[in-house]
Amino acid sequence: MIPLKKVINNYILQATGLLATIAFQLYIANAFTKADYGVFSVVWSSLLIVSTVSVLGMDRHLIKRSSHVSIAKQCENYLRSIRILGLTGLVGGLLLVIYFRSQHYQWEIIISSLAIYLLHSAIKLNEGSLIAAHKVAQVNLFVSLIRPSLFLLFSYLAYLKFGKTSVSMVLLMQAMILMFVFIGTKPRLSLILHKQKIGTGRLRGLVWIKSSFPFLLIGLSLVVNQNMDILIINFYLGANDVANYSFASKIVAYSGISLGVFATIISPIVAELGIDQRKVNDTNKKFALFAFLSIMIAWLFSVYALDKFFPKYQETVPIIEAMLTTLAIKGVFGPVEVYLTMRGYSSAASKIMMFSSVINILLNLLLIPVMGIWGGVVAMIATTLFWNFLMFRHLLKYSGINVFLIQH
After folding, report:
1. Following DSSP, what letter does each residue of 373-407 receive, concatenated?
2. Are the CB atoms for 324 and 256 separated by under 8 Å?
3. Do residues 202 and 258 share a domain?
4. DSSP of 256-279, one letter per residue?
5. What is the secondary structure of 332-371 as a DSSP string?
6. Shared domain check, 246 and 192
7. What contacts 201, CB < 8 A, 6 or more positions away?
8. Residues with Cβ < 8 Å from 260, sequence gap 6 or more?
9. Are 221 and 357 spatial neighbours (Cβ–Cβ below 8 Å)?
10. What is d(CA 34, CA 239) in angstroms, rounded to the nearest whole number?
């Protein structure tokens, strides 16, 4: 059982970091023109997708393979992952350059993006190494709190100094801050200084990649669900529509992430619930209440704050209101993915998420050319309903737990 104090401390760190991230995104959305914010959204979504593919799920694989082994073995696993990342990073970097040049982005943007891409990928491996060494607090401190806080601080200072904030300037600052985070999340010194022959030959490297591949699919399905719609909208509609959609989805997504942070407190509770339906119902009611509060905060922000502080995004209010349907769906089905994982059905949850990612891409490709950004909204709502329902049915069928909020 995880100590309650430790769970609460992790929650506070993640929640504070989440607030800093929201503030940073709102600041740059307001400081940029719509066209620049659209460019920034496309760049960031591209970086997240390509860096996730480049890491090949090795960050999570390190946690599984290095949690209860010797320092020498941890060192071997980490350095093998770094060597593989060096090869995949070259391919990913080349793809990013080709894509960004096809969008006619400036070289300052491209070079800063490449630096962010490589540092972000390396940090993910460092996170896996630190978690394997049971240093979750250090990961939460640097990744969840310090990184977004510094993003916000330095962007604001640059605005005060130069009177404007450009895409290339923000990306350059992010690259410098990620370098600091990379140093802060480096593996233990013994992992770096430990001397030994590792023997990462071709066969062993391929075996390592193969065993990390399931983790790649899990991570990629989540990232694709959250970012592919941005790239499709950019392809069919352009930067201004990307800005509107990205701004609206960010407001809703961060409200949704707050539910995920709340689930970090629920997880150890769920692990002890067994199949006691009454306790499950009580937990679901708490989760639904938190979902309702998240919806209300996001709705009040869109209705009362946009007109005063973000007038150029006033037209996104109907989009935000429609997207909030996804949080209502989450509130009705509860933390169903947490129940699946805690009951030993993580493999089924991963397959459902991967399948829903494919559905999400297909719906976006079909609907956006016809309906514009509302096609992305419909795809988001339909996909959320789809994967929550499938997880609900699987959990009910194989464990007898009914997580649906409304029951007879």
Report:
1. HHHHHHHHHHHHHHHHHHHHHHHHHHH-----S--
2. no
3. no
4. HHHHHHHHHHHHHHHHTTTT-HHH
5. HH-SHHHHHHHTT-HHHHHHHHHHHHHHHHHHHHHHHHHH
6. no
7. none
8. none
9. yes
10. 7
Question: Span 44-57, mean pLDDT?
Answer: 83
Q: Are residue 223 and residue 252 in the same domain, yes or no? A: no
Question: What single-letter amino acid sits at 380?
Answer: M
Full residue range of the structural domain in which residue 324 is found: 237-408
The phi and psi torsions of 201 (rounded to 5 degrees) equal -70, 180
Domain match, 221 and 242 both = no
Is residue 112 located within the same domain as residue 258?
no
Give the number of other Cβ atoms within 10 Å of residue 121's Cβ: 26
* Structure-token pair, residue 322: 């429609």
- Both tokens of residue 62? 């390190």
Question: Where among 228, 248, 281 does a domain terminate?
Answer: 228
Confidence of residue 195 (pLDDT cuts 50, 70, 90): very low
User: Which structure tokens are listed for 270?
Assistant: 């769920």
Distances (CA, A) of 39 to 231, 234, 264, 308: 10, 9, 33, 24
pLDDT tens across 256-307, in order? 766 666 665 555 555 555 556 676 777 777 777 777 887 888 888 888 888 8
- Residue where a domain terminates, one of 197, 228, 259: 228
Q: E strand or H helix at 98, and its extent?
A: helix 71-102
Which DSSP letter does residue 313 get? G
Tokens 């129940």 found at: 339
Average pLDDT over residues 223-245: 89
CA–CA separation, 255 and 245 (whole Å):
16
Domain identity same for 197 and 257: no
CB-count burial class (<10 Å; 0-12, 13-18, 19+) for 328: middle
Alpha helix (H) residue ranges in 185-276: 189-193, 202-236, 239-271
Q: Are residues 207 and 241 in the same domain?
A: no
Question: What's the distance, Cα to Cα, between the start and end of the chain in Å?
Answer: 33
Q: How many domains does the chain have?
A: 2
Q: Are residues 197 and 300 in the same domain?
A: no
Residue 104 CA to residue 223 CA, distance in Å, equals: 25
Instruction: Considering only the C-alpha atoms of the chain, give the largest distance between any 2 of them, rounded to a whole number of Å.
Output: 63
